[in-house]
Specification:
By secondary structure, the protein is an all-alpha fold. The protein contains 8 helices and 2 strands; from the N terminus they run αββααααααα. It is a multi-pass membrane protein.
Length: about 270
């Protein structure tokens, strides 16, 4: 798959892409109409798996002694429900299902990082697929798309709850309630508003991308001899155990910030 360490790293960080016919043949050049097929495949596939699994548990749920899977799903639902009750100050039937979807979907996408780094790319290469990234959250396009969806909901509920006039007043008369400070207030509030999706998307992408790079660097140790390979195996196990905390924490942070942002948007001052 790669002749040297540099090519090995670049290979594992490259997405399987479809470029529009209007794009340049040079893959290194930027082109707007480029689809990262592997990111789309895994993110959609994992989302469908999440919906199927939770629906199956809901259909087969029992009031008697529950099975292990039902207990696990109920624990997740109760955890998310308590997080929503603590952070969201209002009534909205959409928030809890949205928070559950965000937490489980992101966690499952992050979990793909724990699969051995060469397994799926090697299997893809065997059938002629040159590049195959398996962790959707290491793709900035995926994380920013989710963040922009949250941002759209923030704008929607801000206008729905406060009205266009109330939302405009929030942007222009806060924090200084004086007409002369409207330009300053507007700039300040717009920066705070735009920083929400940017921080959501970049935080998740940055942490998962860094974790992926560390896994790739550890995998390179196997090619440096038996001693480095043994050390690499130990480091890979330690980092994988620690990474379980990271993937859970990143899913939780994205969920909580989404709840908080929507709670702020739903407050009518």
């Amino acid at each position: 798959m790669a002749a040297n360490p540099q090519e090995y790293i670049l290979h594992h960080l490259q997405n399987l892409q479809y470029r529009s016919s209007t794009c340049s043949a040079d893959a290194s050049e930027y082109c707007f109409w480029t689809w990262n097929l592997d990111s789309l495949l895994f993110s959609i596939g994992i989302g469908v798996f999440f919906l199927w699994l939770f629906r199956r548990v809901a259909i087969n749920s029992t009031t008697g002694v529950p099975g292990k899977l039902q207990c696990f799903v109920e624990m997740i639902v109760e955890f998310v429900d308590s997080s929503v009750k603590e952070s969201f100050h209002g009534r909205n039937p959409v928030i809890a299902p949205l928070a559950l979807t965000i937490f489980v979907w992101i966690w499952l996408m992050n979990f793909m990082d724990l699969i051995a780094i060469d397994w799926l790319p090697s299997a893809a290469a065997a059938i002629g697929v040159p590049y195959f990234k398996v962790v959707p959250t290491t793709d900035l396009n995926i994380t920013m798309a989710m963040a922009l969806c949250v941002f759209a909901l923030v704008i929607y509920y801000s206008i729905k709850v406060k009205g266009i006039g109330g939302f405009a007043k929030e942007l222009t008369l806060n924090p200084f309630n004086h007409w002369a400070m409207i330009p300053f207030n507007l700039v300040l509030e717009l920066i705070g508003l735009i920083s929400k999706p940017v921080s959501l998307g970049l935080r998740l992408f940055g942490n998962m991308y860094a974790g992926e790079v560390i896994f790739i660097l550890i995998a390179l140790m196997y090619s440096l001899g038996w001693f480095a390979g043994t050390m690499g195996g130990t480091l890979q196990l330690v980092w994988a155990i620690f990474h379980i905390l990271i993937i859970t924490l990143q899913a939780f942070i994205f969920m909580v910030l989404t709840i908080v942002y929507l709670s702020m948007a739903s407050e009518d001052h």
